[in-house]
Specification:
little secondary structure, Collagenase (Catalytic Domain), 6-stranded mixed sheet, 3 helices, globular, metal-binding
Length: 255
């Protein structure tokens, strides 16, 4: 169960993990996505290797000292966690002595996260949430976006069947960022393509020319909106519940 005892949630700082996702160039990032793990471990949208999931759906966390004076943003992060908890069996708990845990810190500019449960350094697995860029108008959507990565998901448009639903404008994507749009093999948990996923890129993300699209729904889906960062979609929730066996039929067993 998520606890609101904010003053106890202080961690130390650490080096940025090797495998991370950065939210988008509109936040000033030029980082290349971290699809460097073995492809057999990566899902079409979710990991297949249970060792990259959080044991029993329990995710320990701390706030870095960089959040000490950011009361509003700390509350928004907790609200984002609560939204996931209310819809799934995943639980975020304040870290006591767990070896693997999330350290949530205030990156100067970017919003990013590692994919899945990583073997943490002594100072934890970092999620970077820029105070100025990751909470627009008091929104929790970007935080939930990054938390879904930490739970073990990738972007929706990386599904192997994505070319049936969207077009990619490779000529308007910097060469250094094209790996962000490469499809990955795995499972989508039997769920349909989700234009409304909180993990779907927007039409102009990572654009060389910001007035020209980089990804858009195919003509037959032209009225679909992509890139929302308000809250989890119904399909996002279904996928979390399926990944973490929230119906109780097959409890997760990982090291």
């Amino acid at each position: 169960m998520l606890c609101i005892a904010l003053l106890a949630l202080v961690g130390l700082t650490a080096a940025v993990p090797a495998f991370k996702h950065s939210h988008g160039t509109r936040l000033g990032s030029s980082a290349v996505d971290a699809f460097k793990t073995n492809d057999t471990q990566i899902g079409k949208q979710g990991f297949l290797d249970q060792n990259l999931l959080w044991t029993g759906g329990i995710v320990p966390y701390v706030f870095s000292k960089t959040f000490l004076n950011e009361d509003i943003e700390r509350m928004l992060v907790l609200k984002a966690m609560q939204g996931i908890e209310n819809a799934t069996c995943v639980r975020f708990v304040q870290r006591t002595n767990e070896q693997n845990y999330l350290q949530i810190f205030a990156d100067p500019f970017r919003c990013y996260s590692s994919y899945g449960r990583q073997v943490s350094s002594p100072n934890g697995q970092r999620i970077g949430l820029s105070i100025s860029n990751c909470f627009p108008n008091g929104s929790i959507g970007i935080t939930q976006h990054e938390l879904m990565f930490a739970l073990g998901f990738h972007n929706e448009e990386l599904r192997l069947d994505r070319d049936e639903y969207v077009d990619i404008n490779w000529t308007n994507i910097k060469a250094a960022n094209r790996d962000l749009f490469q499809k990955r093999p795995s499972t989508a948990f039997g769920e349909p393509y989700d234009f409304g996923s909180i993990l779907h890129y927007g039409m102009f993300d990572f654009a060389i020319d910001p007035t020209v699209w980089t990804i858009k729904p195919k003509e037959k889906y032209g009225d679909r909106k992509i890139g929302q960062r308000e809250q989890l979609s119904a399909i996002d929730i279904n996928k979390i519940n399926k990944m973490y066996n929230c119906d109780g039929s097959a409890p997760i067993k990982v090291a």
